[in-house]
Amino acid sequence: MALDFLSSLFKKKPKEEATPPEEPIFEEELEERVEDREENEQIRQLMERINEIENDIPRIKISIDTIKKQMQELRDDIDRLDKTIKDVMMLYEVISQEVNPFKDQMGQENPLTNEIQDLRKELEDLKLEIAQIKNDIKVLAGYGVDLDSIIYEVLAEV
């Protein structure tokens, strides 16, 4: 094509034929070739990115499965902790009411009783927090929030 163009420049042509029509065709072909190369480069880059993503998917799946297991372990630990706290509170109530009938009088005199009451308040606060966390997780799951994607985003930030 380029050879035809050059040979046409050196040939003697009648004045009726002008070279400008050939030049736009040549320019159009060059533009098409450049566009094709750009498109091919974009396609190549997209294919590379798709391959990278495909390679990352198994690792992401393993990470998600690990996080799910860890979350389940945490739920189990929280449930055990909650049960233990309830047992300790019931035991404390039984002992304090049965063993110490003068609990109210000693509370004012003994500084340890104040600390015990502070600990009791903190324990109640912890119970409320655990209940709120459970409710929040249930609400998020109820609204169809993708907890896995949230966990993945948090891990990506770390």
Give the helices and strands, then pairings.
Blueprint (H helix, E strand, L loop, with lengths): L1 H9 L11 H77 L4 H7 L1 H32 L4 H11 L1
Helix pairs in contact: 2-4, 3-4
Provide structural commentary.
The structure is a single chain. This protein is an all-alpha fold. The protein has one domain. It is 86% helix and 0% strand. The chain has helices at residues 2-10, 22-98, 103-109, 111-142, 147-157. Helix 3 (103-109) crosses helix 4.
List keywords for this structure.
158 residues, mainly alpha, 86% helix
Overall helicity: over 70%
Q: Mean pLDDT, as a whole number? A: 79
**Stretches with pLDDT under 50, minimum 5 residues:** 15-22
Number of helical runs?
Answer: 5
Global morphology: rod-shaped
Structural class: mainly alpha
Largest sheet: none
Q: How big a fraction of the residues is strand?
A: under 5%
- From the N-terminal CA to the C-terminal CA, the straight-line distance is 57 Å
Rg, rounded, reads: 38 Å
SSE run: HHHHH
Number of domains: 1
Short description:
The chain is an all-alpha fold.
